[in-house]
Amino acid sequence: MSQSSLLSDEIADPAARRAQVLVPYPLSKAYDYLIPHNMDLRAGDYVRVPLGKRDTVGVVWTLDGKDDVDPARLKAVQQNFQFEPMPQTHRQFLEWVARYTMSDLGSVLKMSLSAPEALQPPKAVQAYTLPPSVPEQLPAARRKIITLLEDGLPRRAVDIARAIGCSATMIRSMADAGQLKTVPMSPPAPCQLDHLRPVPLTLVEHQATAAEALRTLCAAHQYSAVLLDGVTGSGKTEVYFEAVAETLRQGKQALILLPEISLSAQFLQRFERRFGVAPALWHSEVPAAQRRIAWTGVAEGRTKVVVGARSALFLPYQDLGLVIVDEEHDSSYKQEEGVLYNARDMAIVRARLGSFPVVLVSATPSLETMVNAQQGKYHYLHLPSRHAGAKMPDVHVINLKATPPERGRFISPPLQQALAETFAAGEQSLLFLNRRGYSPLTLCRTCGYRFQCPSCSAWLVEHRRFSRLQCHHCGFMQNVPKACPGCNDENSFAACGPGVERIQEEVQALFPEARTFILASDVITSPNMIRAAVRDIEEMRHDIIVGTQIIAKGHHFPNLTLVGVVDADLGLAGGDLRAGERTFQLLHQVSGRAGRAEKPGRVYMQTYMPEQGVIRALAKNDRDDFLAVESREREKAGMPPFGRLASLIISGPDEIKLDQFCRALAQRAPRYDDIRVLGPAAAPMAYLRGRHRRRFLIKAGKNIPLQKYLAEWLGTVKVPSALQMKTDIDPQSFF
Ligand code: ADP
Ligand code: ZN
Question: How far is CA 398 from the centre of its chain?
Answer without folding.
Answer: 33
